[in-house]
Amino acid sequence: MKSLGRVDATKRLLLEELRVTEQMLASAATKESRRYCDAQITTLPDLGLPYNVRRMHGGFFTGACYQWESDVPLVPIDATVNVCGVSIFRTDIDISSAEHFRERIDHAKNALAETTPFVWNFTSGHHFIILAESDGAGTLPAGRYIVLHASTAEFKAQFNGLYPGPTNWYSDAVKTLDGENGRYLRYLAGRPAEEFYRTASMLESYQRERQRICAALVVGNRHLQEEILSLPHYGMPDQASVAIGCQWVSPASADYVLLTRPRGPIFLLRAREGGSNTLNTMNGERLLAPHGLGVRAEHELTLGRTAETLVVSGQQFPLESSLVDAPIATIREFDREETMREVTAACPSDIEAELVQIHAYFRTGTL
Known about the structure:
Elements: E1 2-3, H1 9-33, E2 39-48, H2 53-57, E3 62-68, E4 74-76, E5 84-91, H3 98-115, E6 128-134, E7 143-151, E8 175-178, E9 184-189, H4 191-219, E10 224-235, E11 241-244, E12 246-249, E13 255-258, E14 266-271, E15 278-281, E16 284-290, E17 295-297, E18 303-305, E19 309-312, E20 315-318, E21 329-331, H5 336-346, E22 349-362, E23 365-366
Parallel strand pairs: 1-2
Antiparallel strand pairs: 2-3, 3-11, 4-9, 5-7, 5-10, 6-7, 6-22, 8-9, 10-11, 12-16, 13-14, 14-22, 15-16, 17-21, 18-19, 19-20, 22-23
Helix pairs in contact: 3-4
């Protein structure tokens, strides 16, 4: 286990949970490989609670990278892998008001449904579409930018999707390693795990194109200018790792984005080599970086499990439910000096630019 950043009360409990997950990943890989195999979980400064109950029930949390060694391809399915990320594009559109912005959003939503195979999911969890502005003080030229955060919803709960379900393409290949106190690890091994990784890898380029199309529908193709970045923060860096809520960037192309809070600034940073956030993958060295502030418990946190529910601070939640509207968790507070000091110390980085939100569309409406 490698823990980066300050440890608060929420992280302290999650680290205990993740130690068990790490041991079970190693045990599953050892069983399939028929020799001892190790596993390591690296937690980032944004380690926190996901809203997805099934993911937590299976022992996986946001703001961490899960890595294992194995001679046999292996994928833990309750990591609920889907490719999710943030894209930033420069735009020259003149949106004069919140009402005008909402009109553009509604137009894009209708056009997406009528003319594309994509599923609109910008109101799921923390997903959003933001029109932001740079004053030109950093590496970004002064002007407006459209920022999108979404996942590849077309490969989630469908038969072809990666989300665990009773009737998807790999449901009859799931193996289970049982642990103590209700803990378990469900996973794929062998050819199904290879196919799973191929899909997850393909979805990175699919996601990038999906984001570009959605951005063009919002601002109009003639107003969509260059892509600044498009980075996943959920997916598989290689066939033996899963990143949940953290970015993995190449040292040769090390820009990444840090989200804060609704109405809060969005930062563009460049990662530097030499830190404890280095991840050695089958695809080369990668640098891990947080994607946001993470979600903490509002009150004292406890976690328990029954066969069909997750018990969070005494409240039971069915496996297919979400904590998104439960008064249990909240995004961590943002303090410019303290937050950026913690992030850049844990994950050596330089702040390159800052975007200020003008208009935003997300789960609870528009700002």
